[in-house]
């Protein structure tokens, strides 16, 4: 169907483009479900008279966020900044390793099994070692974030570089194209969906890595605030920090999604 039809009170119909209807559906359904869950949460806490120390209501959490937004913002800035730095470094490292694995059989045979092996190690068990090696500053949290975030980018990017139309590669070679020309014109554009899929996963892992580091040793950040509030049985503050962390994660994830849209537009324009 090219259009979606919405009935009106007068019996007339309003036709929306299919893309618009799909966009409204993709936004409206998750938002509606979230509002339904929040309403049920608020009703359950009110009716059952659950103590705030066990589970604060959404309204009380929202009130705390509004009244203490300055403190929450102060702690959100270092967490968001460190997550972004870790993600960028993980992306650079992951794409570089994927290129090496794609173009070198020796590197692929040597690196790939070890990458899979390291991925099987419980990452949280290694977090204290990063503190010992790199200290209690930002560098240990960023390094740990990179450590757990780069693997999805390596795997996804390698798959994208390898899953290229062989006929296109033969055509390029028959036209005496250099490897750099093949990479920039064929392999990299074809791998973009894979790369951004890995980046979206890596973005969430980068945030997790920073939060784990803040749990262990930090004097600022949302992870520190969550641990500090939990130790004082201040569940409302912990939940407020988690909500702000979710918004920070959505912001960073949205930037990755925007980068994907922008890259697709650029390469689509170049194709024509």
Description:
The protein has 272 residues and is mostly helical. It folds into two domains: 3-48; 58-271, MetI-like (MetI-like fold). Helices cover 81% and strands 4% of the residues. It contains ten helices and two strands; from the N terminus they run ββαααααααααα. The chain has helices spanning 18-48, 58-67, 69-103, 105-120, 127-134, 138-162, 166-174, 179-216, 222-231, 235-271, and strands at 3-7, 13-17. Strands 1-2 form a two-stranded antiparallel sheet. The longest helix has 38 residues, at 179-216. The two termini are 28 Å apart. Mean pLDDT is 86; it is low at 6-12.
Beta-strand share of residues: under 5%
Compute the average pLDDT: 86
Rg (CA only): 24 Å
CATH architecture of the largest domain: Orthogonal Bundle
Number of domains: 2
So how many helices? 10
Number of strands: 2
Quaternary structure: single chain
In the CATH scheme, the class of the largest domain would be: Mainly Alpha
Question: How far from one another are the termini?
Answer: 28 Å
Low-pLDDT segments:
6-12
CATH topology of the largest domain: MetI-like fold
Taken in chain order, the helices and strands follow as EEHHHHHHHHHH
Keywords: Cell membrane, Membrane, Transmembrane, Transmembrane helix, Transport
Subcellular location: Cell membrane
Membrane topology: Multi-pass membrane protein
Family: Belongs to the binding-protein-dependent transport system permease family.
